[in-house]
Amino acid sequence: MNVISDSTDRMLQANSSVTPLSPAKKNPHHAPKRGSKHGARPRKGQFQKNFSQGLTAQPQKTESQKAQAKRLKNAIPAKGKLRIIPLGGCEEVGRNMTVFEYENDIVIVDMGLQWPEEDMHGIDYIIPNTAYLKGKEKNIRGVIITHGHYDHIGAVPHLAPMLGNPIIYGTPLTLGIIAKRQEDYKSTPLRLKSIQKDSVLQLGKFRATFFGVSHNIPGSLGVVLDTPVGKIVHTGDFKLDASTSGDAPAEIAKIKDLGKQNILALMADSTNATEPGHQLAEHDIQGNIDEILSQAPARVIVGTFSSLLGRIQQIIWAAEKLGKKVIIEGFSMKRNVELAQQLGYMTVKKGTIIDVKDMRHYADNKIIIMCTGAQGEDNAVLMRIANKEHRSLKIEKGDTVVFSSSVVPGNERAVQRLKDELYRLGADVIHYKMMDVHAGGHAKQEDLLELINMVKPQYHIPIYGNHSFLRIHAKVAMRAGIKPDHIFVADNGQVIEFGLDRKGILTKEKVPSDYVFVDGLGVGDVSNIVLRDRQMMAEDGMIVIITTISGKNGKLIHSPDIISRGFIYMREQKELVETIRTKVKNIVNDHNKTNSQINEAYIKEALRNDLGQYIFTKTQRRPMILPVVIEV
Ligand SMILES: [Zn+2]
Q1: Is 533 inside any structural domain?
Q2: What is the Å distance from ligand 1's center to 356 Cα?
Q3: Shortest CA distance to 626 belongs to which of 558, 555, 554, 565?
């Protein structure tokens, strides 16, 4: 017996462990994902459009000769040139990773993930493509992680082992989050080295110093890389808040001092570059939080991101002022709060945080519950409470539910459904739009202008954001007096070079930056073809045609079996099923008129094409057709 199904053929082709993917990518028009980060999983996207463009391409099985030649050429370092290569984060919010290369020395800043688009079925997340670093592992002097958000640390468990396990530098909280997350992956132990904002690192020919920035997670750093061609400043995610909650505020004096240091280039966060004005300071919202918490008639349930530690701290402070107790629900949030407390990034009075079991000892208006799920995520605590699936918490009449984070674009419908459900159960809902209970963690236009004016760079490089964000950020840089030809808006993988004469150029050279998908335990083993299959099945379902053919005379032994999933409900479409069956018989019999030997590939191809066309004319649908030919 010889069973051949279509998908196996394809699957067998892509068996390498890490496959850089061909072209499902490169669309500067990605749906904006402002604030798309910190633990939520956006659902919408433009992947479909990108994807159909890539349909004709085959997955890269082995490195082509051309690619190999290019890689070998790349392996020889350019003399006296600093190469800056964003491997991700320049066409999207997320997947942040920048390579700095000077001759035989490489320093990497950040190693983040990107959440999948809506139509990337089954994909957990996307990580940067590090094909460029293949063969250069020994040159990597260190990886600097600016802060502990997933779009800056998320690829570490996958990429660190592939890159020769380089030393990873970060503040204690950042490293703590990396280390805790590493426990979920059974990969090699990481080499972590703690730094503070006054640390100095000599990494080959690079010397790295740091400045504290305010963001909505403590321990966030900006980086100053002193290179042989000049100093490059990289902000990480930042806003200019001199009074942030929890951790130390932005080190404005240090940033101002950079203005005297003849900075060659400034690379700055564009996440909120499309928004005019200044970002709110975290303390601006403390008053609002105090007010909501003091006026709530009964319990307050606050939904937010588990890594929004600044917000969690503010609520704890408000609770302490008002004599209320705080319950933290959700594994990741609990883990982060414990870690931040242990490391001294969070101050919590003894007895403020209580266990959910002890809730009944307190009056309802003394209780604040902090949990994950403000994005309507299926498995998060807030959704489980609303769906009555949570083991110890349920919505009671009079509860106030506060959504304390902006909705990631694409999650609007899920959040709306969640709010409706909460109202139905008797809760009152307060969203950040109604009151300022949310302040973003990123600089807006006027903040960016201020930054550029303080740092006074010769060149400006907007990073972290969709292409349009970078373009708008570039306009801000022009307002600050940077010459247009000194502003580089790069795509992912595009190489920026600076020479010893301090002249910069945005080259046309592109290193691979295509998506690498993480799906369950597999990294890079889901190819475009697998995704296309998933997409076809999601759209029009699939139909399996099983034909049993005699090996002696090539005749059908019995009537073909037809199985439909997600295409039609067969019991209600008997007529259509019968015509499909007849069509299948005809296709097989036609084939046998000319050839008594069985040619399975031919039969399968005919079934796919002729039957596909027939089904389309009958139904206007294009289900995936899976012909199975059994020879007996
Ligand atoms: Zn961040």
Answers
A1: no
A2: 30
A3: 565
